[in-house]
Amino acid sequence: MKVGRSGMSREYKTPCFVMEQGKLDRNLEKLATIEKKSGVKILHTLKSFNQRSILPHIALKLSGMSIGSSKELYMAQNAKAKHLHLYAPAYKENELIEIFDKISTLSVNSLNQWLRFSSLELDKKPSMGLRINPKLHLPIPDYCNPNLGYSRLGVDYLEFLESYSKNSDSYKNLEGLHFHALFQSSVQGLVILLEHIEQHYSDILPQLKWLNLGGGHNFSDKNYEVKSFIQVIQKFKTSYPNIELYFEPGEAVVKDCGTFITTVLDIITIAGENIVILDTSIETHLLDVAIVNQRLKVVGTQNFSTPYFYKLTGNSCLQGDIIGEYFFLDQLNIGDKVVFENMMSYSMVKMTEFNGMENAKFILI
Ligand SMILES: Cc1ncc(COP(=O)(O)O)c(C=O)c1O
């Protein structure tokens, strides 16, 4: 095997996802330090990474996990996660009732769900909150921008404020608000979000026990300004000392912790193009490429021209199974490894169980 520029020294049976424990630990240490120094609680979001063997390790380091279904609840419980926050765009009522006493905080996604679930008479209920769409104007790609006016994720903040002012009684059990509005954001995004909260919810904040400030915080990036984060949080906590602040990053927990490795099965030249067939397929392993046209980073390539220009494709029978075109630093040969970088978040989960979705049954009638 040609080792390539990634420094891999072992023969891996491909396709495979390879995680480096040292890099995961570095991220977890940083997140744990942020928690300790700022007093916020960081919950790992299972929809981004849910490898069962690693979850107990993550659970030891962070305050809890953010889950989206009963399937993810059992994963988090098995990992011995402490605080469990549940959020999904909608719930099946019977399933929700079954797990009500096992979760710590819960956000519902609509006013309609608030009315249905907050009035349930049950012995033990989690602390209940509502996800809000703050409609912030931020430079986020449309496919993952929860702030869009037509987003189905969270209640439009103006609609919520109007409903609250007309009928605050129906919100007497409201203990939390949930805002997932950022994406790969610096501290500046958090500042904008907190300004929105302080500006619009001053009547409501005194009754709240918690705010969930979502994911999309680029905590593990080397340029993330931890000191300013701590200052921003301290300032907010001075005004609202009784509100617990939760963050639920996904990407930041496993950012740059591992790769996806494939093997070149063939190289064919068609109409002057060098087409590389890899032992993968976008529909099986790389759904982000198929769904949101994401450009993956490949080890040993650069953005500007080299003599080694290849179209990377999959080994399925779909003509559109095309991963992307890349300038390599060296010639590729059959048997070489092609290594995709930063592949631990979302790609692996999307292969099977994004958001802990149930597998659809097959029924023959
Ligand atoms: C509600 C919610 N919270 C947290 C996250 C994690 O976001 P990120 O991976 O950008 O940190 C997501 C991602 O889609 C989300 O939808």
What does this structure look like?
- By secondary structure, the chain is α/β, with parallel strands linked by helices.
- The protein folds into two domains: about 20-255, TIM Barrel (Alpha-Beta Barrel); about 260-350, Lyase, Ornithine Decarboxylase, Chain A, domain 1 (Beta Barrel).
- The protein is built from twelve helices and 16 strands.
- The strands form two sheets. It has an eight-stranded parallel β-barrel with strand order 2-3-4-5-6-8-9-10.
- Helix 7 (about 185-200) links the parallel strand 8 and strand 9.
- Helix 7 runs parallel beside helix 8.
- The radius of gyration is 23 Å and the shape is globular.
- About 40% of the residues are buried.
- Bound molecules: pyridoxal-5'-phosphate.
- Pyridoxal-5'-phosphate (PLP) binds near residues 183, 214 and 250.
